[in-house]
Amino acid sequence: MTTHTVDTTQEIAAFLRTRRERLDPRDFGLPSRRQSRRTPGLRREEVAELAGVSIDYIVRLEQARGLRPSVGVVEALAQALRLAPDERAYLFDLTRQRRPEADGPATAPAPQLAHLVADLSPLPAMLMNHRFDILAWNREMTRLLQVDFDTLPAPRRNAMWLCLMHPRIREFYLDREQVVRDGVAHLRSAWAAHPEDRALGGLIAEFTAHDEDFARLWAARDVKVNGRGHKAMRHPDVGEIAVHFEVLMPLQDTDQRLMVCRAADDRSRTALDRL
């Protein structure tokens, strides 16, 4: 069996050509063609006009002549060819360009994921976006963190804000320094990946201005994506609890992150059961 590597130039050419040929000119208000025409779909010149590029540029792309389209051109081609979200992502991957957010950062939970968070009981679970905004949670997470998320204003329903600013949560973690350090390193990664996100920039500015620890750690420029880890907490009702957490990214909603916690030891399992 032969394993083929991707020749991106050839694949871009073939992909653009097949996407163009599947389109119906009538969907664009263009006159239908004679049946004798050899190539179905839109003409190259029609795609060029829709995308705002030259015909020669489309020809060179479809002939695999070594062009690397810019982000703006890739987005224009995706719109002109009416690519589905997965096809758009594929074209961005082929051209080695960073994908702009198609719909902006998630501010509401995907309904299926919100149901999943509830179904994960009795494991504490919550759904966040890249800013650490908390989008959905179950009652076990509420009891673990001692926070009634429903009563918080939406801008304060943020895991990093709670850790830095909430008077009770500030003293909740046994190793607060490490928790904040990991959170700052994650936010710096998110900040680089989402430079257009003004809400994230506003959060970072607020944290830097009001928390000395955050400002110090932000200036260190550490970068880390926290997909799993361990946290120890001092709960006022059941004493110390240690949990392992796992953060999962759904394929269909890549700006949403599902965080699930489980007891790290027997003592913590008993404590969680009491909660």
TrEMBL record:
<dbReference type="Pfam" id="PF13560">
    <property type="entry name" value="HTH_31"/>
</dbReference>
<dbReference type="InterPro" id="IPR001387">
    <property type="entry name" value="Cro/C1-type_HTH"/>
</dbReference>
<dbReference type="Pfam" id="PF17765">
    <property type="entry name" value="MLTR_LBD"/>
</dbReference>
<dbReference type="InterPro" id="IPR041413">
    <property type="entry name" value="MLTR_LBD"/>
</dbReference>
<dbReference type="InterPro" id="IPR010982">
    <property type="entry name" value="Lambda_DNA-bd_dom_sf"/>
</dbReference>
<feature type="domain" description="HTH cro/C1-type">
    <location>
        <begin position="41"/>
        <end position="88"/>
    </location>
</feature>
<protein>
    <submittedName>
        <fullName>Transcriptional regulator</fullName>
    </submittedName>
</protein>
<dbReference type="GO" id="GO:0003677">
    <property type="term" value="F:DNA binding"/>
</dbReference>
